[in-house]
Amino acid sequence: MVTEVSKTLDPPKSSDKLEDFENLIPPFLRGARGDLDTSVDFSNILLATQERHYELLISIRGCGMNIVTLLIVWVVTAISLLIISKLPLGVEIDTPGKAFLSAAVLGIVTAIVRPILSLIFAVPNLLTLDLLSSIFTFMIAVVCFSIAAWLVEGFRLRYGIWSAVIGAFTLTIINSLIYKLLGV
Q1: CB-CB neighbours of 85 under 10 Å
Q2: How far is Cα 86 from Cα 93, in angstroms, rounded to an integer?
Q3: What is the mean predicted confidence (pLDDT) over 159-169?
Q4: Spatial CA neighbour of 99 closest among 26, 169, 160, 167
Q5: What is the dihedral angle through the alpha carbons of 145, 81, 182, 62, rounded to the nearest 10 degrees?
Q6: In DSSP terms, which residues pair with 157 in a beta bridge?
Q7: pLDDT per residue over 59-86, tens digit each?
Q8: Phi-psi region of 58 (alpha: psi -120 to 50; beta: other; left: phi over 0)
Q9: Which of 68, 102, 170, 175 is the most exposed place for a label (fewest CB within 10 A)?
Q10: Nearest-5° Cα angle at 25, 23 to 31
Q11: 14 pLDDT higher than 50
C-alpha cells in the first residue's frame, strides 16, 4: 500500500503547468484505471483558492475595511494629530513619528474601549430616549483620546481633561475636513 501511494504522489516536474499537479492528486480522487477523475475541475478549484487567499490577505474581517482604507485612516489621523499639536490647544506631540504611533494607538484603543463604553452608556442612552447619544459618543471619544495620550510617551495633554475634550473635538473636525478634501 505504501508503494502505491508513493508512486501516485510523485512531485511535479515543472511547477508552471497545471497538468503537473495531477501527480499530486491522491488515489481516492482517481478513477478505476488510475487516470484522473474528470468530474472534478481542479483548475477552477486552484484559481478559486488563490482568489480567496488574496481576499483574505487584503480583507480585515472584524471591521469590514481593507488594508488601503485602514492605511488612509491611519495617515489622516496622524496628519490631524500633527495639525492639532501645532494649535494652542494643549495637545503636544514631539515628533511626526510619535504622531503616527499615537494615531495607531488611538485606533487600537478606540477599537477596544468604544464597545465597552457603549455598553456602559447604553442604559443612560435608553433612559434619555436616545436624546443624548451624541454627547455619550463624544464622551467615549474623549476617553479614548485621553487613554491614547496616557499610553504614548511624547503625546501629552497639557491641561488634562480640557485638552482631551478640545483635542477630541478638533480631531473630529480636522479628520472630517481632510476626508472631504480627499473625497473619501
Answers
A1: 21
A2: 9
A3: 95
A4: 167
A5: -40
A6: 91
A7: 444 455 688 888 989 999 999 999 999 9
A8: alpha
A9: 68
A10: 100
A11: no
